[in-house]
């Protein structure tokens, strides 16, 4: 059990939380509903945060979570531990569900929230990113990109902004943003190789 | 978009933008539809998912609305259409009871026993003092949560003791109220649905309770609800 105390809020979780998810996913693939519920109970807060960062609307994020868990129930057998962690697999499904919902709404999601991308990323969020070796490497590689390039990638990945929304936000022509993000992704791939 | 004619570089860039989320709806649908039959594209998408996955940690965790799991469970299992009425009516028809005989009654009883919900699990924890002396007993089940003092001691002068619960996976504890002087408190299931693994803690707060809705003072006692086996 690892516990962290901060301002009286206990952040505790068993050390085996990660390793437990893979067998739970196998059980879900076999039709075990209680295993799906166990995954929900362990991951819902993190995953709802992922959906809500994209949709910025709790009702819509709940719809995306429902959609995502139906997909998880149907596709758990496709989880391949060789390709990544269960957390990453679950988060990817939630992101796609949230992005699909954002697209179906014409991405008519307010992006004028001043908290979006302009403010420095909170230290605890960076701590979470750097909690894995992959996260530390990704952060180092992101640091080698130009500022606007980096922000474009984070706005798209974390907040689900389209090319056009990022262009409006960074006050750059659409074509420029597309080319920059593509270049940034190529640089990231080289850096992470 | 003809995905089959893409060069490896174009395919990788498309996979990257699919994972990043910047593709328009039509393009994203085309990629999603091509994935099961295009191993190279699926591999490229998986690689990009692995590369960018740590960024999901930037999203602040947030507790979902209560009841979301029930919604998901209902969507997974659309309720089968049952017609117990006719079956029941037949069974209760006094002219038929004799004909059905004891077997049916026994079967009904068996069904009743099998279908009866399992008794809700009881959970307990004992909150210890810093010298490992039992101080509080917490007992919980689906009917709520009860706290009793084992070793009564008043709150520090001019302060209040507040009880909190932190369900597993939640980022912020829920206040269960101030602990009265007699050291007993009963919390309705509407306030908190006790679950195994839930943390229970008692903090020192200003009179009237935490002004922020979150613990502000030191934690005096802490424990984790565990199923009470054999109960």
UniProtKB/TrEMBL annotation, chain B:
Top-level taxonomic group: Bacteria
Pfam families found in the cross-reference section: RskA_C
Sections of the chain in a coiled coil: none
InterPro entries: Anti-sigma-K/W_factor, RskA_C
Stated name of the protein: Anti-sigma factor
Species the sequence originates in: Falsiroseomonas oleicola
Residues in Anti-sigma K factor RskA C-terminal domain copies: 103-219
């Amino acid at each position: 059990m690892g516990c962290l105390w901060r301002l009286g809020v206990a952040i505790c979780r068993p050390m085996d939380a990660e390793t437990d998810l893979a067998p739970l996913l196998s059980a879900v693939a076999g039709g075990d509903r209680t295993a799906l519920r166990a995954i929900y109970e362990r991951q819902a807060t993190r995953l709802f945060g992922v959906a809500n960062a994209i949709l910025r609307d709790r009702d819509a994020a709940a719809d995306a979570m429902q959609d995502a868990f139906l997909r998880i129930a149907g596709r758990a057998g496709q989880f391949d531990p060789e390709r990544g962690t269960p957390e990453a697999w679950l988060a990817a499904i939630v992101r796609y569900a949230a992005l699909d919902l954002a697209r179906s709404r014409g991405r008519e999601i307010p992006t004028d929230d001043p908290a979006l991308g302009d403010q420095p990323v909170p230290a605890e969020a960076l701590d979470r990113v750097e909690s894995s070796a992959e996260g530390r490497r990704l952060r180092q590689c992101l640091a080698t990109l130009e500022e606007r390039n980096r922000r474009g990638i984070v706005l798209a990945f974390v907040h689900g902004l389209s090319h056009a929304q990022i262009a409006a936000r960074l006050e750059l022509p659409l074509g420029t943003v597309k080319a920059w993000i593509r270049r940034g992704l190529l640089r990231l791939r080289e850096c992470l190789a | 978009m003809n995905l089959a004619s893409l060069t490896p570089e174009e395919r990788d860039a498309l996979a990257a933008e699919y994972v990043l989320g910047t593709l328009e709806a039509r393009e994203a649908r085309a990629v999603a539809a091509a994935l099961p039959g295009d191993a190279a594209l699926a591999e490229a998408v998986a690689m990009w998912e692995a590369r960018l996955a740590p960024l999901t940690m930037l999203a602040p965790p947030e507790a979902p609305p209560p009841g979301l799991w029930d919604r998901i469970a209902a969507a997974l299992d659309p309720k089968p259409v049952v017609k117990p009425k006719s079956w029941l009516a037949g069974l209760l028809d006094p002219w038929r009871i004799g004909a059905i005989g004891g077997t049916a009654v026994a079967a009904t009883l068996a069904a009743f026993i099998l279908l009866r919900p399992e008794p809700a699990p009881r959970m307990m924890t004992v909150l210890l003092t810093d010298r490992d002396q039992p101080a509080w007993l917490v007992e919980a089940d689906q009917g709520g949560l009860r706290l009793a003092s084992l070793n009564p001691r008043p709150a520090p002068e001019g302060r209040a003791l507040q009880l909190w619960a932190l369900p597993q996976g939640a980022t912020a504890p829920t206040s269960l109220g101030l602990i009265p002087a007699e050291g007993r408190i009963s919390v309705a299931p509407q306030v908190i649905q006790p679950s195994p693994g839930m943390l229970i803690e008692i903090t020192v707060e200003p009179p009237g309770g935490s002004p922020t809705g979150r613990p502000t003072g030191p934690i005096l006692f802490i424990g984790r609800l565990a199923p009470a086996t054999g109960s």
